[in-house]
Amino acid sequence: MPDFKGLDLTGKTAIVTGASRGIGAAIAIQLGQRGANVVVNYTNDKSERKATEVVNKIEAAGSRATLCQASVANVNDIPKIVDAALRLSQTGKIDILIHNAALGVDANLEDVTQELFQTHFDTNVKGPIFLTKAVIRHISRGGRVVFVSSAAARLGVAGQTVYGATKAANESCARVWAKELGQSHGITVNCVNPGPVATDQWQESDEQFRQDMQPLIESTPAAARIAEVDDIAPLVAFLCSEDARWTTGSVLCANGGLYN
Length: 260
Ligand SMILES: NC(=O)c1ccc[n+]([C@@H]2O[C@H](COP(=O)([O-])OP(=O)(O)OC[C@H]3O[C@@H](n4cnc5c(N)ncnc54)[C@H](OP(=O)(O)O)[C@@H]3O)[C@@H](O)[C@H]2O)c1
What we know:
Elements: E1 13-16, H1 22-33, E2 37-42, H2 48-60, E3 65-69, H3 78-88, E4 94-99, H4 114-136, E5 139-148, H5 152-155, H6 161-180, H7 182-185, E6 188-194, H8 200-203, H9 207-218, H10 229-239, E7 251-254
Parallel strand pairs: 1-2, 1-4, 2-3, 4-5, 5-6, 6-7
The structure holds NADP nicotinamide-adenine-dinucleotide phosphate.
NADP nicotinamide-adenine-dinucleotide phosphate binds next to α1, β2 and α8.
């Protein structure tokens, strides 16, 4: 009989930021289906219904889940996320932290404003740094931190000065924390780097940007199509598993081979 216990997440406690929609929702459901209890974080009042649907799907799979409305960009909200995880945890520990929430508004360099810079760095960089700092004192040995980065971190996509820089910062954090928190805390820290994925962030991006990306999408080695959220979520779940214990500080290709 095959033994896939190394992929099992039963009883683990996970935080997924930005889990009301898109890639984050798919990750939260995937972790729940593999047995993890999940904090489903979101920020906007309008997303409560969608976030509740994610919680319902996780509970239907037999795991526990809780909603947590909090902005990762606001350091005062961070304890809410940590407390929600500790309430959900059956061991008093947090096992999995997925940094998925991010802003991704495109702007050519000439159009970059201080506000765009600040909101993106607050959400995409400051949030993960201070959330990790708050979680780390509760993390279990064997714990996992995964960033949802982007191919934009290294691909050099026109219009992504700020967004690309935030994602490059995430990948840098993963490499630093793999060393700083590896032996000391017994955890791994990794990234996945999707290319275009059919989510709200993609649909809401500039029409011209989407047209410009079409040739790139059609050149995707794995298949000439945009990714779906379920192309990404299993890769994140794998990085959260015991089987992934020897992978840390890495960026796992999650873009069909567009960029590695
Ligand atoms: N879609 C793509 O093509 C693509 C490609 C590469 C990488 N990525 C990355 O994948 C991740 C998810 O992207 P997506 O396309 O699924 O995004 P999305 O559909 O726009 O969803 C964003 C999620 O993040 C949440 N969020 C936004 N700001 C937040 C904050 N301050 N605090 C907490 N939650 C916040 C949103 O919550 P509300 O519902 O409450 O607003 C929502 O759940 C991001 O890191 C993104 O950079 C996406």
